[in-house]
Amino acid sequence: MAKEGFNSKMGAIAAAAGSAVGLGNIWRFPYVLGQNGGAAFLLIYVLFMMLIAMPVLISEFAIGRKAGLPVLGAFKTLAPGKKWYLIGFSGVLCAFVISSFYNVVSGWTMYYTYLSATGQLASLSEGEVAATFQQTSSDPVLCVIWMLVMLGLTGFVVARGVEKGIEQYSKVLMPVLLLLIVVVCIRAVSLDGASEGVAFLLSPDFSKLSPKAIFEALGQSFFSLSIGMGTMTTYGSYISKKQNLSSSAVSVAMIDFFIAFLAGLMIFPCAFAFGINPGQGPGLVFVTLPNIFNQMPMGQLVSVAFFFLLVVAALTSSISLLEVVVTFVRAQYGIRRKTSTFIACSLVAVFGVACSLSSTIFNFFDNFSANVLLPGGALFIVLFVPLVLGKKQMRDELEAHGGGFRLFEAYYFLTKYVVPFAISLIFIVNILSWMDIKIFD
Ligand code: PFF
């Protein structure tokens, strides 16, 4: 396999941001925030992004670039004869689990593009908008077909190895999505009754902050940044030595956070203005946005463009997920890209069908991957830094571009002590609260 590389700084950041920005920002973030009480969750989320997720992202980039190999090979090469490569296996499992439900949601998004384009979402009442989502998500045939269309498209891109082509398009299309989000936000905050939604997002009520909310904020920050499973380690291996890894990581995280925040600012005012329960779960985006499109000038056009661009954002993330599975199958069994893509897609399709048919399986995959597999993976990835690489090697890698990394000491302290401790503590508190053992009251 020829080593692929991104020669421009924009190329590497765009690809990593393409993986990070997706349904996690626009579909998952608002619904998880809605279920966990709003602004207090947002604050914890920001804190976790800066103190936990950022060090993990920087570590993944550095490990990948140092080894110059995708995740499995990276851990094998940097720690020969040790078991650290198992991080790669857990990453493959995780990519597989996430792909299974991710394609279902991408499928809904595609279907909504079709519904908007054919005018079927126009002039629906709030009740009809809610009923449309209810029918969509509970129609097994529809869910399976659109999930397969999305998976097929992802497989097509991965099989031909044309991700870079998609990235070229997405570099142009993502700013358009951002612009549309801003336009919809402006309309949303000017709706009658929107202020309650803005307050929900921005004025924290800490009494709503349960251990579960803290746990989910952590999982969401990992899911949103695509960290904890080696995706970003693989991207790191494509980044040139001339680039500043820490500033690339900061750019990716800022873009990612900004889009999630704007998604919240678009959805909650809309939810409150139309009397929709913000805590209703995975359908939130689909039951709020069509209402606002119906109250906008050129609403149908905005709606088609919005859902279409969301499909593109989902596609770039979905590609990065499938790529993890395909790279593994190729490396493990030495088979061609096309064959391994076919095998990976067939497996994902089976579990995708299960997620389409059962909301219990869907929710389990969604929660288990974000809240358990990713933080678990991240814990081992950060432990790898002090236990295997050590401070000097890490500093050399992070300063390889020739400049310094002013916050290196802070990064290393967080990675060595704060991140492992915080992830373990949050896990333990949650297990106790699942077992209904109260430690706070
Ligand atoms: N970060 C993606 C999103 O926010 O939609 C989801 C994701 C993609 C998670 C790739 C993990 C991953 F490896």
Structure description:
This protein has 441 residues and is mainly alpha-helical. The chain is 79% helix and 0% strand. The chain has 17 helices and no strands. It has helices spanning 9-20, 23-35, 39-67, 71-78, 86-117, 126-138, 140-160, 163-189, 194-202, 211-225, 231-238, 245-273, 284-293, 299-333, 337-357, 359-398, 408-434. Helix 2 crosses helix 12, helix 3 crosses helix 17 (408-434) and helix 5 (86-117) crosses helix 15. The chain is globular. The N and C termini lie far apart (57 Å). It binds 4-fluoro-L-phenylalanine.
How would you sum up this structure in a few lines?
With 441 residues, this protein is an all-alpha fold. Helices cover 79% and strands 0% of the residues.
H/E element order: HHHHHHHHHHHHHHHHH
Query: Level of helix content?
Result: over 70%
How much beta, percentage-wise? under 5%
Structural class: mainly alpha
Q: What small molecules does the structure contain?
A: 4-fluoro-L-phenylalanine
Taking all Cα atoms into account, the compactness measure Rg is 21 Å
Largest sheet: none
| Distance between the first and last residues' Cα | 57 Å
Tally of strands: 0
The mean pLDDT is 92
Shape: globular
The DSSP helix count reads: 17
Name the poorly predicted regions: none
